[in-house]
Each structure stands twice: as C-alpha cells, then as structure tokens.
Amino acid sequence: MNVVITNRQRAKKIDARLLKEIVAGLFAELKIEEAEIGINLVGAREMALVNETFLQHEGSTDVITFDHRDSKSKIQNPKSEIYGELFICIDDAMVQAREFGTSWQAEITRYIVHGVLHLLGYDDLKPHLRREMKRQENRLMRRIADKFTLAQIAMRPKISA
Length: 161
Fold this sequence. Notes:
- With 161 residues, the protein is α/β, with parallel strands linked by helices.
- It has 5 helices and 4 strands; from the N terminus they run βαβαββααα.
- The chain is 47% helix and 18% strand.
C-alpha cells in the first residue's frame, strides 16, 4: 500500500499520519489488497482550478477523483486494487459540515470514502446507483467512526514551555 497525503491548504492543520491510518483501515474494510493513492488536501481556489481544467466545471467542489489505472490493465480483480488520486477541498468540507451538522473532519473522511468507492467502480450519476453508493458510504463511515476518533484529524497547536 502506498498512500501519499499532500496538504496544500492553510485553513486547517491536519494530522496526515492519522489520515493515513484511517485510509489503511478503509482499505482493510474493503479488502483492497494493492493500492497506490494520492490524496491532495487543497483550498477552494486550487480545487476550482482543478475542476475547471480537468472537468470543465466552474467553481470549487468537495472531492474530485482521478482513476489512474490503465484502461487496458490486466488486473484480475479490480475490486482489490486501486490506483488513483483524490483532490479534497477543506474549505468546502467546513461549509458542508455546518450545513449538515457534522464536523469538517468527518466530511474529509466521507470524501475519502466517496473517492475510494469511485475508484472501485461505484457511480452516483443515476438515482439507483447513487442510493447504493450512499449506503456503502454510510456503512463505511460508521465502521471508521467506530475505530477512529475523527476529531483528532485536526492537529492541536503545540504548547511551548
């Protein structure tokens, strides 16, 4: 497993080590055997640029998933291997957390789960597919919340003596 977390935003201090542990727990829950994933934590300005450049959509969004597997890949079981990249907007997570009455840390975790499900082939474009994906997302979020304290994703400022 290779999980690379890049923090390119300044709105929140994030414990990347704990985030990696959460991703490893998610992979174990999903029985993902091989993974190479980059998780980019970005602000709204960078997310809008990615969204406009690659998807031709205007403005920021919460999460964008890029599947980097070769379409001619000879992967025997695509449900056990992923190779991709997620862009997660911390600014959008803070806004949606207020809107949904949750924490920004839970929103970030949900975006990771959502992106990984996309990398596994889940789709949310049609209502029946969206419902199935949401069911899986909610199930995985409950499992993760049972194993990890999501509030600890926020790094506490160091107290100097």
